[in-house]
Each structure stands twice: as structure tokens, then as C-alpha cells.
């Protein structure tokens, strides 16, 4: 059902545009996984139907219904992902029933009896619908260009579209997708816009899970972005880790970026806001959900050292890597990188 619908929409869109960022982010393999799981899981079946209801209003091009459908899709994928790894790590996950008082999304139960909760956010592009529409329109222009080149007899047709999830209009700067400061600020500000509400973290020990699948065009691999600073190979310059600073960055803190050549600047700017765990004391930990180079889901968790006894043993089983504000575990991830 979902697999068929997404495949149809992707094929229809590919006839007219080379890109539709949100639609293209739906994995056909994962849609098939959802369809199979819906046969025996009421939560998945119900939410798959909600996705399909949104997709009924979608055709070619961007509509806000795509983002709403994608948010639900990510909830299901996360639910399946956590329950799958939980089989070997002694925990299971259930969806928390919604009420008008505000609730977290998931409840995690360990076989030894301990419980904690997860509030999930899926971040979208800067400038929201405006940026999605621009990306799709650029894809349309690229498709037209390819057709014209082929019709004119060109032996090889080439057209390029750059999707820029962190771009913002009317800011008066030259856009650079490798700008570390802008990416970190964007992640934090998107979460601030998404309104992190105290009541969603009041049920018990609750962590924030941030899905970055739409914003995951990050410079460098996820392991390097999980530490506060690392050294790139070409010029041996120091670079600030995007995920670590999104959790622990401080207002006006200077950020290191890739240098363009010998003698070029290494410090590119200062943060305009506080990291999530500095700003929201009631958020016990933040986990970023991203994909590695092979498309596998990874969870990177961050916690305050002062909260270690309370939270570390809870997030460690669900994450591929965990770090804190003192970078206590940085060496663990760096020593395994060739």
C-alpha cells in the first residue's frame, strides 16, 4: 500500500522534475517494511493510514502534505528501528497515547523494569515550504534543460541541481553549504521554532530524539561530527563537530571550519544561540538520528556529565555512540576512524 503509493508518486514526479526533496527521502525499502509490519501492529497500521491520507492530496511538485506524511513515516521507522535493536539489548518501545495535556512520543521499557520516554522531532529545511518549492522548481528547470539538450542532438546531456537545506533568504550573505556555524545555528533554531514544550518532558525521564534525514547533508561523517573538534586530512586544520555543538554550543562561541588553502581563515564565525542541552535543563539528553554513507540509521546521543548517573545507562543501549559536554568518550569514536 504505502510502497505502491510512494513508488507511483516518485515515478510521476521524475517525469517532470529531477528532484522533490521530501518525496525522494521516502525509502521504498522502508515503505515495504512498514507495509509488512502493519499486518501485525495496530500503531503502524493506523499511522500508515494517516500517511496515505496525506499522500492522497499530493501529486507533482511540493505540498505541505508531503512534510506531514514524512514526519509520521519517520515516527514509524524510528519505532521499528528501536524495537529491532531492542531485541538484543533488553528493551522494547511503545507509542505513548496522545492526550490534550501534551505527551512524549515513545515509552522505552527495559526488562529490568526501568522506563524512560522519547520526544521526537523531524527537522525540515530552513525557510520551510519556500525552500522545498524552490528545490522542486530547480529540478523542473533541470529536466527542461536535459530535454532541450537531447532534442538539439547533444551526445551527452548534463544538468545540475544543488539542494540547499540550510539556505535562508534575505540574509545578505553568499551561501556556502559547508558553513559549520550556519548548520549548527540552523539545527538549534529549527528545534527552537518547533517549540520544545516542558509538558512533553514532564512524564518522567525524557530525551529528545532529532531526526536529521532532511537536513543530513553534513560536511564529514557522523563520527567526526560527534566530537567538539577534529582534524581534517588535507590541510590538518581543526573543525568543529556539528552534532556536538548543536547539543553543547554556547552563545558567541567561535566555530572552526575547513580551510580553503594554506593561510586561509580557520575560524569562520560565532554561534548565535545556545546548544539544546545548555538551553533546556528539562531535556535530559538529545539523540540525533542520521544515516551513514550506506544509508543505515545511526543514533548519536549527548548528555550532561552532571546527569550521567541518571541518564547514561538509559541512552547507551539505544545509541551507536554517546558523548557528553566534557567529550569524555571522544577517543572511543576517533580511534576507529582510518
The gist of it:
The chain is of the alpha/beta class.
Number of strands: 11
Poorly predicted regions? none
| Coarse morphology | globular
Task: Indicate the structural class.
Answer: alpha/beta
User: Helical percent range?
Assistant: 25-40%
Helices and strands, in order, run as: HHHHHEEEHHEEEHEEHEEHEH
The largest sheet is:
7 strands, mixed
Strand order of the largest sheet: 1-2-3-4-9-10-11
The pLDDT mean sits at 85
The total count of helices amounts to 11
* Count of individual domains: 2
C-alpha termini separation: 43 Å
Report the portion of residues in β strands.
Answer: 15-25%
CA radius of gyration is: 21 Å
Description:
This protein is an alpha/beta fold and 338 residues long. It folds into 2 domains: 1-88 and 134-164, no CATH class; 180-334, no CATH class. Helices cover 38% and strands 16% of the residues. The protein has helices spanning 2-14, 21-25, 28-38, 42-55, 64-86, 128-151, 180-193, 242-248, 276-279, 308-315, 330-334; strands spanning 91-95, 106-110, 115-122, 206-211, 229-231, 238-240, 254-256, 267-270, 285-291, 297-303, 321-324. Strands 1-2-3-4-9-10-11 form a 7-stranded mixed β-sheet, with helices on both faces. It has a two-stranded antiparallel sheet with strand order 5-6. Helix 3 crosses helix 5 and helix 7 crosses helix 8 (242-248). It is globular, with a radius of gyration of 21 Å. The N and C termini lie far apart (43 Å). The model has no long low-confidence stretch (mean pLDDT 85).
Q: What's the topology here?
A:
Layout: H1 2-14, H2 21-25, H3 28-38, H4 42-55, H5 64-86, E1 91-95, E2 106-110, E3 115-122, H6 128-151, H7 180-193, E4 206-211, E5 229-231, E6 238-240, H8 242-248, E7 254-256, E8 267-270, H9 276-279, E9 285-291, E10 297-303, H10 308-315, E11 321-324, H11 330-334
Parallel strand pairs: 3-4, 4-9, 10-11
Antiparallel strand pairs: 1-2, 2-3, 5-6, 7-8, 9-10
Amino acid at each position: 500500500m504505502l510502497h505502491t503509493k510512494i513508488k507511483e508518486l516518485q515515478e510521476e514526479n521524475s517525469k517532470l522534475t529531477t528532484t522533490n526533496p521530501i518525496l525522494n527521502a521516502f525509502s521504498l525499502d522502508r515503505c515495504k517494511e512498514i507495509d509488512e509490519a502493519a499486518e501485525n501492529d495496530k500503531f503502524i497500521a493506523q499511522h500508515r493510514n494517516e500517511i496515505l491520507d496525506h499522500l492522497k492530496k499530493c501529486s507533482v511538485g511540493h505540498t505541505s502534505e508531503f512534510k506531514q506524511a514524512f514526519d509520521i513515516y519517520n515516527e514509524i521507522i524510528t519505532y521499528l528501528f528501536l524495537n529491532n535493536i531492542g531485541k538484543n539489548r533488553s528493551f522494547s518501545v511503545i507509542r505513548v497515547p496522545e492526550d490534550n495535556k501534551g505527551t512524549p512520543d515513545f515509552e522505552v521499557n527495559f526488562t529490568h523494569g526501568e522506563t524512560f520516554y522519547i520526544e521526537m522531532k523531524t527537522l525540515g529545511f530552513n525557510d520551510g515550504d519556500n525552500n522545498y518549492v524552490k528545490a522542486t522548481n530547480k529540478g523542473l528547470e533541470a529536466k527542461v534543460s536535459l530535454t532541450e539538450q537531447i532534442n538539439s542532438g547533444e551526445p551527452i546531456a548534463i544538468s545540475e541541481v544543488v539542494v540547499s537545506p540550510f539556505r535562508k533568504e534575505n540574509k545578505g550573505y553568499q551561501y556556502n553549504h559547508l558553513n559549520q556555524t550556519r548548520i549548527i545555528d540552523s539545527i538549534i533554531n529549527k528545534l527552537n521554532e518547533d517549540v520544545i514544550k516542558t509538558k512533553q518532558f514532564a512524564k518522567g525521564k525524557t530525551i529528545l530524539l532529532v531526526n536529521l534525514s532532511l537536513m543530513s547533508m553534513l560536511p564529514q561523517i557522523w563520527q567526526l561530527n560527534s566530537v567538539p573538534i577534529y582534524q581534517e586530512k588535507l590541510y590538518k586544520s581543526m573543525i568543529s563537530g556539528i552534532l556536538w555543538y548543536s547539543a553543547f554550543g554556547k552563545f558567541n562561541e567561535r566555530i572552526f571550519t575547513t580551510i580553503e588553502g594554506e593561510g586561509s581563515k580557520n575560524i569562520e564565525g560565532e554561534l548565535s544561540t545556545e546548544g539544546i542541552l545548555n538551553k533546556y535543563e528539562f531535556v535530559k539528553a538529545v539523540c540525533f538520528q542520521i544515516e551513514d554513507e550506506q544509508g543505515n540509521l545511526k543514533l548519536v546521543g549527548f548528555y550532561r556529565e552532571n546527569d550521567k548517573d541518571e541518564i547514561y545507562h538509559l541512552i547507551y543501549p539505544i545509541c551507536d555512540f554517546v558523548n557528553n559536554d566534557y567529550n569524555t568518550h571522544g577517543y572511543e569514536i576517533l580511534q576507529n576512524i582510518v
